[in-house]
Amino acid sequence: MALMPHMHRGPSAIKRLLDDYDRYLSGHALDPHPRAYAPTFDMRESKEAYELEGELPGVKQSDVDIEYIDTHTIVIKGHTERASQLDEGSWWISERSTGDFRRSFSFPSTVDPENTRARLRDGVLSVTIPKVGSTWEAKKVKVEDE
């Protein structure tokens, strides 16, 4: 019998497992005061763009704001809350976080804010960030006569 369920291998899966274990050991899983919300994201790179996918369960489209702070960095921020967060006597355990969140991602190449596309569907935010000048070619400069 396996001690751990099948999961994707890699540093992020191990980090999540260790975070859950640490929360269990410290008793924070039973803490009535929720922690700040920090959504998890996956990022991949193709030849033309960077693609982000983040988990935003229960977050409304109107509560998500995406902006560029420079030509290499995008910031995703927003707010999540649950109605009747901890009504008197109604919750035994509250592990889901609420409140404001903010994530920023920096890219090694210049990106195109004008053609960035974002979609929120079924609690997953998908953002496609096109690269600018992803294929650099040598260019000759013509020297003109006086």
UniProtKB/TrEMBL annotation:
PANTHER family recorded: HEAT-SHOCK PROTEIN 20 FAMILY MEMBER
Protein name: SHSP domain-containing protein
Residue ranges of every copy of the SHSP domain listed in the record: 32-146
Keyword presence, Lyase: no
Domain of life: Eukaryota
Record family assignment: Belongs to the small heat shock protein (HSP20) family.
Keyword entries, A-Z: Stress response
Xref: InterPro entries: A-crystallin/Hsp20_dom (IPR002068), HSP20-like_chaperone (IPR008978), Small_HSP (IPR031107)
